[in-house]
Amino acid sequence: MTNDASNPPVTLNPEPFSVQSQNTRRVGVVRDERYLLHKPGHTHPEHPNRLKSIYRMLDADFSGQLVHIEPRPATLEHLDLVHTPAYVKRVLKTADYRYTSLAPDTPASAETYLASWLAVGGCVKALDTLMECSVDAGFCLIRPPGHHALKDRAGGFCVFNNIGITARYAMKEYGLRRILVVDFDIHHGNGINDLFHKEKEVLYLSTHDPLLYPYTGDWEDVGEGEGEGYTINMPLPRELTDGEFLHLYQAMVGPVMRAYQPQLILTAAGFDAHEEDPIGRSRLSEGAFGTLARFLMGWRAEIGNPPILYVLEGGYSPRALAASVKEVILGLLAPGPVEKAAIKESQQTSDMVARVRKIHEGYGVW
Ligand SMILES: [Zn+2]
Predict the structure, then answer these.
(1) How far is the CA of 270 from the centre of ligand 1 (A)?
(2) Local structure of 155: helix, strand or coil
(3) Nearest one of 110, 137, 139 to 122, comparing CA atoms
(4) Which of 67, 74, 140, 184 would suit a FRET pair with 325, their CA atoms being 20 to 30 Å apart?
(5) What does the pLDDT look like over 290-325, one tens digit per residue?
(6) How far is ligand 1, taken at its centre, from the CA of residue 233, in Å?
């Protein structure tokens, strides 16, 4: 390392934070240049520039304020928690080719396997760091994303189901039995939805555009068997404002948190509902994501501050993505109360809340 390195690695050390105000939280961030090695092609929306833009923002706006969490590659044991050995082998095999594909929309380059292994490993390491109480909140700024990945299949730009594996790891390693996954990516996280469909140990809550890939996540998809009522899907109309979006979360996630009392909160953080996103058709601004982070931190405080981990999913405008991640990190660092004016209840959102409550009232989960 050169002695004039402008960005020295910050090691896990809570010391610098002790001098800060009590209102400032210790936020851990997983980042690594090796996440840029997955190259699906110049014109593919899930481009390394997404993370480059975020990393530049971190250096410019949060230098020295975040705890760096160093990822290490996942083990086969981690991957086996969700994926079939044949699929894991198939991903590994992509290393033999300069360019190949795991699914029609999910190309792979020679080092995709490494980025994918590190994406899972980064989440696992972040969870360990949270469970040691070395940080108050974490954000995995990783790629490839994961919420569409199935047990034996890639899809929707996703290779391994990063959050699914993290939830399984939390159950196995730490004995957790109530894990809340909040997925605000504009696409339905069918991979997570399916993995925990029959289980009550993971409550999956998603808001998404039903007219976009993968066209799943209907209101009536509530889970099955023991997991009935532990899957909450809310399809969104495209014209929602920030205030309306926040009203939906306030009316839904607040009560879910208080009733379910999660021991861990995992957030499938996709920012493709942003108005500038080239794939999403919604109209949120970055401020909505920051306010949602403050909401989540507030509800979490009410139930004893369980660990909270944000994991990056989609978001395809590098500028809007970095701006949105910045708002979230500000919200995690210094949560503070949410101003009433930020929330806008409309006839449309009241009807949506009434509908989801009616569908779920019989299960008694929230
Ligand atoms: Zn998405």
Answers:
(1) 6
(2) strand
(3) 139
(4) 74
(5) 999 999 999 999 999 999 999 999 999 999 999 999
(6) 15
Omega into 214 within 30° of 0, i.e. cis? Answer: yes
Nearest of 134, 198, 196, 133 to residue 168 by alpha carbon: 196
Is 360 labeled as catalytic in the residue annotation? no
Of the candidates 38, 47, 147, 148, the residue annotated as catalytic is 148
pLDDT digits (tens, 9 = 90+) for 203-238: 999 999 999 999 999 999 999 999 999 999 999 999
**Strand duo 106-109 + 264-269: pairing:** unpaired
Pairing mode, if any, of strands 99-103 and 106-109?
antiparallel
Considering just the CA atoms, what is the radius of gyration of the chain in Å?
Answer: 19
Total-model pTM? 0.93
User: Residue 22 Cα, ligand 1 centroid: separation in angstroms?
Assistant: 35
Q: What angle do CA 170, 248, 160 make, to 5 degrees?
A: 35
What spacing in Å lies between the alpha carbon of 317 and ligand 1's midpoint? 12
CA of 146 to the centre of ligand 1 (A): 10
| Alpha-carbon span 244 to 188, nearest angstrom | 19
CA 281 – CA 243 distance, rounded (Å): 17
